[in-house]
């Protein structure tokens, strides 16, 4: 039985299917000793596949929840030698990678896995996973600001989807706001507040779907429980339909 090369790579935990496609088209993948750049390439179990000269092998899928601290890169490696989220899970033997990303100066909940299919479903824009952030912003957030957050704000030439927003507290010249969105645009939360002239001073992702940070401190991580993995897969499948 033959399957598409990028699908086999994703199942092997090399990367998500979309990231695997980039590895293929940029010449990082060899099949039976030859560089392959065609995304339609089919392979079988008898083919030898190497990524940057490292043979791939099918690993047991693993799933981890990390409380990412500030000052850590959401990546597998960093050319500037900064600490990455994978460095925080050095005891995990499998080749894992983050699902989506959090900015260097943003803390909070991050998933890591070697399940490329699930990663692809959870990070694809159409699947709309709800994520709740708590932001400390400059200035006093007004009722009008909250209305705009809830109904949508134009950033990068396009209006954001409706969101849930609540002021937790205000003091002096700053506000703490909880914001729940289901989009995944680059720096979206920061840009939404910046559009309202309330620059973000501190940001944390407190939940991802039904998952939260209960019992964890920055830098802590835990494996997902079997029922949590099943719920994530079900959530992805429900949104796929």
UniProtKB/TrEMBL annotation:
Database matches in Pfam families: PseudoU_synth_2, S4
Annotated PANTHER family: PSEUDOURIDINE SYNTHASE FAMILY PROTEIN-RELATED (PTHR47683), RNA-BINDING S4 DOMAIN-CONTAINING PROTEIN (PTHR47683:SF2)
Which species is this UniProt entry from? Lentilactobacillus parafarraginis F0439
Q: What is its EC number?
A: 5.4.99.-
A GO CC term? cytosol
| GO molecular function per UniProt | RNA binding; rRNA pseudouridine synthase activity
Record's protein name: Pseudouridine synthase
KW Nucleotidyltransferase (keyword) present:
no
One of its GO biological process terms is: enzyme-directed rRNA pseudouridine synthesis
**NCBIfam families associated with the record:** pseudouridine synthase (TIGR00093)
Domain named RNA-binding S4: residues:
3-66
Keyword terms, alphabetized: Isomerase, RNA-binding
Q: Which SUPFAM superfamilies match?
A: Alpha-L RNA-binding motif (SSF55174), Pseudouridine synthase (SSF55120)
| Family statement | Belongs to the pseudouridine synthase RsuA family.
InterPro entries noted in UniProt: PsdUridine_s_RsuA/RluB/E/F_cat, PsdUridine_synth_cat_dom_sf, PsdUridine_synth_RsuA/RluA, PsdUridine_synth_RsuA/RluB/E/F, PsdUridine_synth_RsuA/RluB_CS, RsuA_PseudoU_synthase, S4_RNA-bd, S4_RNA-bd_sf
């Amino acid at each position: 039985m033959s399957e598409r090369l990028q699908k086999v790579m994703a199942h092997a935990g090399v990367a998500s299917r979309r990231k695997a496609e980039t590895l293929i088209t940029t010449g990082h993948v060899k099949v039976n000793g030859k560089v392959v750049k065609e995304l339609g390439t089919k392979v079988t179990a008898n083919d030898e596949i190497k990524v940057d000269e490292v043979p791939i092998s099918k690993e047991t899928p693993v799933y981890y929840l990390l409380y990412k601290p500030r000052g850590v890169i959401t990546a597998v490696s960093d050319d500037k030698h900064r600490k990455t989220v994978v460095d925080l899970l050095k005891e995990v033997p499998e080749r894992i990678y983050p699902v989506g990303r959090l900015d260097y100066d943003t803390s909070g909940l991050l998933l890591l896995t070697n399940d490329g299919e699930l990663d692809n479903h959870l990070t694809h824009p159409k699947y709309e996973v709800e994520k709740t952030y708590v932001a400390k912003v400059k200035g006093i957030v007004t009722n009008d600001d909250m209305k705009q957050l809830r109904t949508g704000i134009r950033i990068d030439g396009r209006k954001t989807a409706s969101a849930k927003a609540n002021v937790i507290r205000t003091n002096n010249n700053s506000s703490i706001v909880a914001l729940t969105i289901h989009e995944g645009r680059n720096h979206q939360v920061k840009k939404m507040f910046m559009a309202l002239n309330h620059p973000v001073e501190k940001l944390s992702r407190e939940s991802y779907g039904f998952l939260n940070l209960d019992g964890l401190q920055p830098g802590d991580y835990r494996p997902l429980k079997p029922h949590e993995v099943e719920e994530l897969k079900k959530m992805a499948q429900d949104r796929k339909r």
